[in-house]
């Protein structure tokens, strides 16, 4: 969870984007997932990022036989990512995923929902273990650890199903926080093909929340590398006199801190 919070805080001012665009003929829609991922709109209002409940509703409302999902995301909440993945898998449209820059963490298994996955040269896919914050007795901490292992097992299953790689090999990749170049993603089955071009929009992410992020993954072509720094706490929302606003803000913070992050 600390990793998720750091990721959200350090990218609040990033050039990010979430949008759904349908062509004039109505036979194709494009979903741009260019942001960190959180579970609910309340969390997005507080921490930033794109909310899974908002994305899922947008996906459900698409009436087109083909959906293009363009991804450039450093990841986020594991269950928020699962909700977006499920919304894509359950939609009757043909899903074409395009990894334009980065499909890291939760964004990596959203990408796995594609019927066809293309990755741009220079883009990356990253997979790793789920994380959270925990406190309490030894028994409660052991229960939390057990839950994290179950989450990791579901992630491994998703990647194995898509890539056809050996279970043990995929588990080792997850445990090690593994970054795949575009060529490696195709080689190991995380993508079907290299993209001829990219119609996406560049976004430069601060990936200091991750231990092994390569510089190339955080700096798209034409950008300078941002300084690696420890994220600071976000500024509090502007003060309001009414008690209801203060209570709502406090509730949003509790929700964010209790969520399981990826």
Please supply descriptive tags for the structure shown above.
10 helices, 2-enoyl-CoA Hydratase, Chain A, domain 1, 19% strand, 10 strands, two-stranded parallel ribbon, single chain, globular, eight-stranded mixed sheet, alpha/beta, 262 residues
CATH superfamily: 2-enoyl-CoA Hydratase, Chain A, domain 1
What would the CATH topology be?
Answer: 2-enoyl-CoA Hydratase, Chain A, domain 1
What is the residue-averaged pLDDT? 79
Characterize the overall form.
globular
The CATH architecture is Alpha-Beta Complex
Query: Could you spell the SSE succession in H and E letters?
Result: HEEEHEHEHEHEEHHEHEHH
Note the quaternary state here: single chain
Number of domains: 1
Q: Which CATH top level class fits?
A: Alpha Beta
Strand content: 15-25%
**Biggest β-sheet: count, sense, barrel?**
8 strands, mixed
- Segments where pLDDT lies below 50 for 5+ residues? 219-241, 248-262
Distance between the termini: 7 Å
Protein name: ATP-dependent Clp protease proteolytic subunit
Region (Disordered): 218-249
Organism: Jeongeupia chitinilytica
InterPro entries: ClpP, ClpP/crotonase-like_dom_sf, ClpP/TepA
Can you walk me through this structure?
The protein is globular. The chain has one domain: 2-enoyl-CoA Hydratase, Chain A, domain 1. Strands 1, 2, 5, 6, 7, 8, 9 and 10 form an eight-stranded mixed beta sheet that branches. A two-stranded parallel sheet has the order 3-4. The C terminus is likely disordered. By secondary structure, it is α/β, with parallel strands linked by helices. Helix 2 packs across helix 10 and helix 3 packs parallel to helix 4.
């Amino acid at each position: 969870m600390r990793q998720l919070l750091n990721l959200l805080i350090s990218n609040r001012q990033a050039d990010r984007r979430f949008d759904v665009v349908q062509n004039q003929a109505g036979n194709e829609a494009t979903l741009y997932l260019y942001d960190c991922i959180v579970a609910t709109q309340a969390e997005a209002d507080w921490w930033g990022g794109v909310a899974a409940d908002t994305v899922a509703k947008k996906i459900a409302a698409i009436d087109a036989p083909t959906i293009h999902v363009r991804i450039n995301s450093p990841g986020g909440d594991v269950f928020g990512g699962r909700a977006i993945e499920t919304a894509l898998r359950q939609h009757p449209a043909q899903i074409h995923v395009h990894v334009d820059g980065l499909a890291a963490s939760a964004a990596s298994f959203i990408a796995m929902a594609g019927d066809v996955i293309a990755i741009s040269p220079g883009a990356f896919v990253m997979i790793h273990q789920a994380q959270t914050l925990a406190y309490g007795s030894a028994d409660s901490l052991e229960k939390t650890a057990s839950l994290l292992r179950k989450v990791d097992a579901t992630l491994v299953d998703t990647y194995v199903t898509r890539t056809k790689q050996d279970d043990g090999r995929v588990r080792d990749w997850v445990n090690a926080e593994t970054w795949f170049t575009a060529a490696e993603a195709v080689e190991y089955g995380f993508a079907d093909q290299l993209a001829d071009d990219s119609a996406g929009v560049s976004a430069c992410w601060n990936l200091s929340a991750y231990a092994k992020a390569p510089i190339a993954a955080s700096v798209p072509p034409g950008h300078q590398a941002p300084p690696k720094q420890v994220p600071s706490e976000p500024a509090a929302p502007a003060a309001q006199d009414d008690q209801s606003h203060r209570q709502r803000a406090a509730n949003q913070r509790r929700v964010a801190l209790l969520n399981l992050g990826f």
